[in-house]
Amino acid sequence: MQAVWLEDNALSLRQDIPIPAPSSGEALVKVRLAGICATDLEMVRGYYPFTGIPGHEFVGEVVTAWGDTKLSGCRVTGEINITCGQCRACLAGRRTHCEKRTTLGIRGRDGVFAEYLTLPLENLHCVPDAVDDEAAVFTEPLAAALEIQEQVAIHPGERILLIGAGRLGQLIAQTLALTGCELQVVARHDAQRKLLEAFGIATIAEGEVQAGRWDIVVEASGSAPGFALARQAVRPRGVIVLKSTFKGNSEVNLSSLVVDEISLVGSRCGPFPAALRLLGAGRVQPKPLISGRYPLSKALAAFDKASLPGVMKILLEPG
After folding, report:
1. pTM above 0.90, yes or no
2. Pairing between strand 10-14 and 3-7?
3. Which pLDDT does position 132 carry in this prediction?
4. What is the DSSP track for 7-30?
5. Which of 31, 78, 11, 33 is nearest to 290 (CA)?
6. Are 274 and 149 in contact (CB under 8 A)?
7. What is the per-residue pLDDT across 38-90, written as a single tens digit (0 to 9) for each?
8. Most distant CA pair in the chain: distance in Å?
């Protein structure tokens, strides 16, 4: 089959990858659409050592499902952490932190920038008929956006600053806006601001951010300067939610975090059922974020496009 291959921080397009064979309890899924996200771009830059097929945002169609013929032909999306179910983390209900986990297109398991993929049946979620492919492909990042509210109680009227209005930041903004909080978003590009304003979400220039004003600051820019701004903006006893991954290190004054009693919350994967419900109800609108669709055969050009400043979601489709 045709697939994108990542090795030694370089991408190539290959035609010689065997169609994967599902193991017991897994399904073979034909990819309908896949999305390029910031993590995929950071993987190419060396964020995490990986050799294989990258990509983890997808909607597909089940070809075969081990022991569950009812799933055959169903449109699905899937959770990206493949877990053992037996380690201490799994038994304690922390399955996304399984001690033996592999992660779709990131760690120890080929991903979705290919014609086919395999995933355990327990990772799959059927896509409602009301959610078309172009919306369904956003399920994984939308779930990641919703994880913030799983981890931090957000109340109407609280002052929340979101730093970063890229692919994930736009979804975070839409989900936070549903809480009734006082939300403002630091957006770097005009196109980002226009997207937010279309949803009635207020933006703010970086130079206008007042120090120590915000109850909760969500850092989604994927940059060291973004964290520095978050630290400046949060009030004493406030919360900083770290929502992005990037290659490199940030300098942190730990003493100031202690003195101001700042809570740091790392946040990544989130609830798929809630994401699909929001998409089905039309309460989140991801399709305006699509900047382009490319056939899989043009994947390298798609990555080039996705890496340009201000570009939102680039989708790959078979062909």
Report:
1. yes
2. antiparallel
3. 98
4. ETTEEEEES-PPPPPP-TTEEEEE
5. 33
6. no
7. 999 999 998 889 999 999 999 999 999 987 778 889 999 999 999 999 999 99
8. 58
211 pLDDT band, cuts 50/70/90, is very high
3-138+286-317 CATH pick, 3.40.50.620, 3.40.50.300, 3.90.180.10, 3.40.50.1370 = 3.90.180.10
Which pLDDT does position 250 carry in this prediction?
76
> 284 to each of 63, 148, 278, how far by Cα in Å?
29, 16, 6
* pLDDT computed for residue 173 by the predictor: 98
What is the tens place of the pLDDT at every residue in 158-174? Answer: 999 999 999 999 999 99
Token readout for 220 is 């989604």
Start and end residues for every CATH 3.90.180.10 domain found in the chain: 3-138+286-317
Give the span between the Cα atoms of 141 and 173, in whole angstroms.
12
Q: Classify strands 214-219 and 159-163 as parallel, antiparallel or unpaired.
A: parallel
Residue 147 burial (CB < 10 Å; 0-12/13-18/19+)? Answer: buried
Q: Write down the pLDDT at residue 245.
A: 74
**Average of per-residue pLDDT values in the chain:** 94
Lookup result for tokens 């990772």: 123
Q: Where are the beta strands (DSSP E) in the chain?
A: 3-7, 10-14, 26-36, 57-65, 75-78, 81-82, 102-104, 108-109, 116-120, 124-126, 159-163, 182-186, 202-204, 214-219, 234-242, 263-266, 290-295, 313-317
Output Rg (C-alpha) for the chain, integer angstroms.
19
Contact (CB, 8 A) for 312 and 32: no
Look at residue 247 in the predicted model and tell me its pLDDT: 65
Superfamily of domain 145-266 in CATH is: NAD(P)-binding Rossmann-like Domain (3.40.50.720)
Name the segment(s) of the chain with CATH classification 3.40.50.720.
Answer: 145-266
DSSP 50: -
